[in-house]
Design brief:
The protein is of the alpha+beta class. It folds into four domains: 43-111 and 169-300, no CATH class; 115-167, no CATH class; 305-397; 404-470, no CATH class. The protein is built from nine helices and twelve strands. The model is unreliable at 1-7 and 481-496 (pLDDT under 50).
Amino acid sequence: MIKATPMQLECANCGGQTELSPDGVSARCLFCRSVQLIQQPTAQFDRLKDYPDASFSTAHAAPKVELSQLKGKVVDLIKSDPIGFRNVESLDMSIEGVFMPVWIIEVAARSTWRGKYSETRTVTRYREVTKYRTVTKTRYDGESYEDKEEYTVQEPYEDKEIIWHPTTGIHEFDSSFKFPAVADREKEVRFLTDEMSLKECAAGIPIIAKEHSLLTPALSQRGVWDRFKCQELLAAQGNTECRSCVEQLEHASTRVERVQFTLGFLPGATVSYKNGARSYAHFFDLLTGRHFGDAIPLDYGSVDKGSLAAEAKAAFELQEQIKRKHEAAEAEIDVVKGKTNRSLLKWACLFVIPLLSAMAGFGGFATFTFWASLICFGYQFFTMKSKTEATEAEIRSRLPKETPWKDFLVKRGKDLIHLARISYDQLDWVSNTPPDAQPHYNEITRLGRLVRGDVNAFLKDAEQIGIRLAKGEAIISNPVVPPPVPPVLGENVKPK
């Protein structure tokens, strides 16, 4: 960034004093906060032109979303959450617009490649075939007879043959990259470049309007080319492109023919505010209205943890009692089935003797005894089976049909999810993590999306939370502990 001596100028809007920006490009009024462009900063961009034989131009995109609309968007965002902060209108929001610099690199590349292509030919080959023929032979006594004789011949046939031929070629292609021109705001710039196109941009430097500022680019042409390994990206794209030119690619070499560097400035804005001692910030794309940033402030009083824990404990204990009754009933049913099986085993033993007598052929009495025993055994089997089934049905009919735990999850499942989100948010607050490093942001967002869907979508998560709550355990089972912040060396802190 180009340094300049701060100086005071008169504001063209209100006549107040202004303070020159460090890069000397613009000045911001100390009273009305309007920004006016002091000079076109073309000279300061000369230091960025360090890529040999590359062309350079500037472009900018005009904002499509007014800064005055952003507060309403944040308010709607907070209100759309079931447990969002209630008194949202009381939040003192500050909005700062900024033009983020981005390098748009357009490359004309040339790849020379070496490879092989195949040719399929029809060739004539020969194979050995065994055949038989009838010949006349003479016995020792002079009589002749016919016999079959085996012989082999070479039979021609057609076959396909693949021949590989070496070949070389040249392939020209165009490529483009979009990379941040600053290092400390890389996340915001990448967010802005997701859906931007040069077709939406106008030539030149943007006119700095009120409440906007121009972020000075830090990376030069060569700096951005080397930092993001553009040559390797081109080589990888060249290999991909050349694979479509030849059947079997062996080698490809890509070089840059022409390169155009466009320094684009894309409009964005940061909406920041405080809720208590905690700061929040949301970054907006002023072309599309999309945003990203911190989790929104939540209303910690929207869920009564004490009453929810009492309900969870009561439902869980009642479900456990019902579970024990079911287990006792199953044990009783097993006892009844065991008695039935032992009785049937005794009858089976009585049936074995007539069966063996009938198989040994001891006469008609043995056969009669066999069939009589079989009929008695069958009668006892079906009688005992029906009695066992009736006893089992009677035991099961005494069991309670209530499902208090499931009913609790369906009724208070959303409150359980809300309570987990609040617990994650409180943990991030206590850990005092910076805006872009909140370790549980993804989990807070995931649970927020779940609770907006069907009840079956969040029932599993709600059950896990409810069980921990009913048992008096921590709601968050495996919190992410952020790394400790190293102390700042000072008078009372000595390095080890």
